[in-house]
């Protein structure tokens, strides 16, 4: 792994698989790594709310012998109270790593460019790479393989959809994004994933038909219809996304042994029914837990 972790596209397939091996070892023998990052500090910059990302990075660095400093949306005010450059130049003298969750992806790129310490993307409007890696780690844990599997992402072509496309392309898993017209993943992201997929044989597809998307899928994945920052569109999006709800009827088109995934938080009754998210085929809490193990492996590789 290079100096930062900003996108799944920045790491090679080999590096992803090495990260998975390390995460697996950390999950089964956490005590082995209890002083791996002894005395090191990670700054956690949040310009949006969080449960999983905050807790897994905070607990994760502590389990490696380090510390975290949480900076809430009200505190830093990136680009307004202080420039990204100045924040980077301050923090690099105080901490050994920076995790950042913000709106514009450019802010994360700028932070990484200016800061001499590793920067980890904890979600932007464009991507959520820690989520994507933890999700493929989870699928591998359950299915025993990734190559040739079909993942269907149903809903908004958002940050999580982008990272799942990038991950699938690198790991040889076919990814179909089923979304309403006008809510497709960014075309540049689709093009990049299609390009990356040439090396692995993965198929990256976009369709507006959820039934076709879910057909024979090994994994059916969904996310909220309105992401953080899109709250004012929430009501209008409910009309558009209604036919894209993941319910029993849609799951019936997937393989009999298909699993259901969601990055969480979930809006039960909207993008997914209780029946599906509470079904034994749902692995949403396993994927949430795996954020911890995979991010520990990322922090270790970048900050050791
Ligand atoms: N999935 C995820 O990143 O959750 P949080 O927004 O709670 O961190
Ligand atoms: N797409 C969602 C993911 C939350 C983890 C959002 O950006 O709000």
Helix-strand layout with pairing:
Layout lengths: L12 H16 L12 E6 L5 H12 L3 E5 L1 H4 L7 H8 L5 E5 L3 H10 L4 E3 L7 H15 L6 E5 L4 H13 L2 E5 L8 H11 L6 E4 L2 H5 L4 E4 L11 H8 L6 H4 L7 E4 L11 H4 L6 H20 L1
Parallel strand pairs: 1-2, 1-3, 3-4, 5-6, 5-8, 6-7, 8-9
Helix pairs in contact: 1-13, 2-13, 4-5, 6-7, 6-13, 7-8
The structure holds phosphoric acid mono(formamide)ester and norvaline (NVA).
The site of phosphoric acid mono(formamide)ester has 9 residues, from α2.
Count, helices: 13
Our Rg estimate from Cα atoms comes to 19 Å
- The residue-averaged pLDDT reads 97
Q: Looking at the chains present, what oligomeric state does this protein adopt? A: single chain
> What overall geometry do the principal axes of the alpha carbons give?
globular
**Strand segment count:** 9
The unreliable regions are none
CATH topology of the largest domain: Rossmann fold
Largest sheet: 5 strands, parallel
Helix content: 40-55%
Strand order of the largest sheet: 7-6-5-8-9
Classified by CATH, the class of the largest domain is Alpha Beta
Terminal Cα span: 12 Å
How many separate domains make up the residues? 2
Small molecules bound: phosphoric acid mono(formamide)ester, norvaline
* Helix/strand/pairing category: alpha/beta
Portion in strands: 5-15%
């Amino acid at each position: 792994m290079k100096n930062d972790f900003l996108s799944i596209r920045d790491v090679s397939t080999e590096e992803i698989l090495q990260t998975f091996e390390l995460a697996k070892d950390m999950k089964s023998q956490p005590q082995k790594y209890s002083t791996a990052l002894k005395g090191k500090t990670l700054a956690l910059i949040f310009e949006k709310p969080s449960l999983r990302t905050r807790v897994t990075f905070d607990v994760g660095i502590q389990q490696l012998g380090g510390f975290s400093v949480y900076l809430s949306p009200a505190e830093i005010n990136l680009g307004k109270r202080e420039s990204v450059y100045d924040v980077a130049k301050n923090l690099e003298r105080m901490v050994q790593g920076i995790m950042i969750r913000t709106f514009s992806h450019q802010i994360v790129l700028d932070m990484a460019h200016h800061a001499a310490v590793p920067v980890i993307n904890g979600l932007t409007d464009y991507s959520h790479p820690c989520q994507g890696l933890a999700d493929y780690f989870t699928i591998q844990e359950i299915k025993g393989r990734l190559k040739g599997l079909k993942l269907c992402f149903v809903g908004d072509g958002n940050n999580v959809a982008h990272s799942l496309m990038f991950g699938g392309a690198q790991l040889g898993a076919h990814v179909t994004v089923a979304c309403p017209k006008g809510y497709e993943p960014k075309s540049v992201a689709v093009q990049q994933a299609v390009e990356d997929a040439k090396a692995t044989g993965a198929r990256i597809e976009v369709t507006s038909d959820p039934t076709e998307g879910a057909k024979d899928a090994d994994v059916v994945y969904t996310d909220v219809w309105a992401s953080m920052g899109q709250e004012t569109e929430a009501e209008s999006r409910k009309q558009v996304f209604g036919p894209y709800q993941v319910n029993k009827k849609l799951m019936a088109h997937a393989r009999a042994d298909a699993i259901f995934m969601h990055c969480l938080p979930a809006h039960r009754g909207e993008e997914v029914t209780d029946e599906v998210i509470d079904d034994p085929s749902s692995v949403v809490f396993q994927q949430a837990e795996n954020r911890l193990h995979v991010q520990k492996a990322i922090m270790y590789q970048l900050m050791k």
